[in-house]
Amino acid sequence: MNYIISSCTIGGDTGLSEHLLSLYRSLELDYPKFYKMDQLSKLGWLASEILLKNNTILSTMQPEDVGIVLTNANSSLDTDIKYLDTVADIASPAVFVYTLPNIMIGEISIRNKFKGENAFFIFDRFDADFLELYVGQLLDTGVLKACICGWVDVLGDNYKACLFLVARGQGETVFSKENMDKIFREEGI
Description:
Layout: E1 2-12, H1 16-26, H2 39-52, E2 66-72, H3 77-87, H4 93-96, H5 102-112, E3 118-122, H6 128-140, E4 146-155, E5 158-168, E6 173-174, H7 177-185
Parallel strand pairs: 2-3, 2-4
Antiparallel strand pairs: 1-5, 1-6, 4-5
Helix pairs in contact: 1-2, 2-5, 6-7
């Protein structure tokens, strides 16, 4: 059986930059690369920091045993729009690098040295059925021992991250569509 070990939800519809910077400072993080990331990567990265904080389950696993499967509705559109604005003058390589949503997975993986299976999918809405089936298969077949999965989406000032740390055979909250949907609907930070 697979279990949700921890979860983190961050959301809002105004002041994304300020909210993310405030969270970063309140967590007392020291990761200079944070300031170079786009908003989508910052949101996903901060949610993963909160998700993994004081969580020791991953310390017993090899980097290849931990994967990341994320979803959203807008891909990297927020950054794509910003990049398009720079093209009118001089295209910015610093912005261009973030025009793929899987860069966020790379930022989380680099920080935590994860080397397991990873994927990014685009859906109209949060799809807990898909996550339960896809991540469940990765865990049930032994491809992964743990997985960070969920939703991270940014477009303008509308944003939401809802991440789950899921592991095989240990925990109290069953990894199910119903439990993910319930957590997703909660307000969060």
